[in-house]
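Hey, I was hoping to borrow your eyes for a little while. A protein chain has come my way and I'm curious about its shape. Take your time with it, there's no hurry, and the full record follows here:
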Amino acid sequence: MKGILKMKETFPLIPVSSGPIFFFLGLSVFFVSLVVLFGYLAYSSRNVRCQVSVDGLRVVGNFYGRRLPLETLAPDGAKVLDLNRDTAYQMKWRTNGVGLPGYSAGWFTLRNGEKALVFLTDKRRVLYLPTRQGYAVLLSVMDPEGLLDALRRALNQAVDQSP
């Protein structure tokens, strides 16, 4: 029999590599990025706006905002919708966008099969604006008729300014 131990002997483990540290660092960066992303989405959902000029319609304030030149728009086919009643224009599939309760933005396929660029916060007041590029734009604005009138005035002004 070997000698009796009268004290504790300690044998430390080999120190871990930096793998777990990088894992938790990466995970932390991921979660912080998610918080920033959702914070931006919350902020942008309340600050999207439309601007009309002779250069076109500009949607400003989120990832999917863009400038649509006047010549690509077809305001003669535009109409004001209530998506609670006009079910053919409701969104069916989100192809690249954000779909949160009370806020939808991005690219969707509508129930009628049409592709649409959507900026919706209220389904009761929606401007449906077709384009000459094979898709429509759906916008929730406070004054859809006013936006449509502004687009028509901009188109008339652009025609008057052309040589």
Remarks:
- Strands lie at 49-53, 56-60, 66-68, 79-81, 91-100, 103-110, 115-120, 126-130, 136-140.
- Helices lie at 19-45, 144-161.
